[in-house]
Write a structure and sequence with these properties.
The protein is α+β, with helices and mostly antiparallel strands. It is built from 6 helices and 8 strands; from the N terminus they run E-H-H-E-E-H-E-E-H-E-E-H-E-H.
């Protein structure tokens, strides 16, 4: 499974990760059409937090013990056994927002028009998530982690810092 890591010291808060996430999840995947011509403007699956000189993107971390999966009343949030991703079945989502309440990092958002939840899906089907591929300062890094038990994450975080 892939993981996105943040180098917050080089994030400039440009919000391009949000823009390209929106574009990736639009119907047309064309910049002009997605933002000017689509009847419903696409929503990003991540957000940029800014506080003075520090900024960084917040997205679903696909937690090992994902509270959102346990809290989901309809069973719309599940973990894919092959990829390890926490996925949303939009047909089953009833828009109760319980997952929003229990997410420890606030990475799940609401699509109020559709009354469904939105969360990062790591741009499945792409080699690298759109937010990472289009970050101008390389503040986002995508790393494929094969076995979480070997603590590759610690090595990558040390490398980033």
């Amino acid at each position: 499974m892939g993981r996105v890591y943040i180098k917050k010291e080089v994030c400039i808060g440009c919000h391009l990760c949000e823009l390209y996430c929106q574009l990736q999840h639009s119907r047309s995947t064309d910049l002009i059409k997605a933002f000017k011509r689509e009847s419903m403007r696409p929503s990003p699956r991540l957000r940029v937090e800014e506080k003075e000189a520090v900024s960084f993107s917040v997205r679903c971390q696909h937690c090992d013990e994902a509270p959102c999966v346990y809290a989901c009343l309809s069973g719309a949030l599940t973990r894919d056994s092959k990829t390890g991703l926490v996925k949303v079945d939009e047909e089953r989502c009833i828009g109760c927002w319980t997952c929003l309440l229990v997410c420890p990092i606030g990475a799940i958002s609401r699509d109020t028009a559709e009354k469904k939840v939105l969360k990062c899906d790591l741009c499945q089907g792409e080699d690298v998530p759109a937010c990472v591929a289009n970050c101008p300062n390389e503040a986002l890094i995508y790393v494929e982690v094969q076995d979480e038990s070997h603590s590759t994450e610690g090595k990558v975080i040390a490398m980033i810092q």
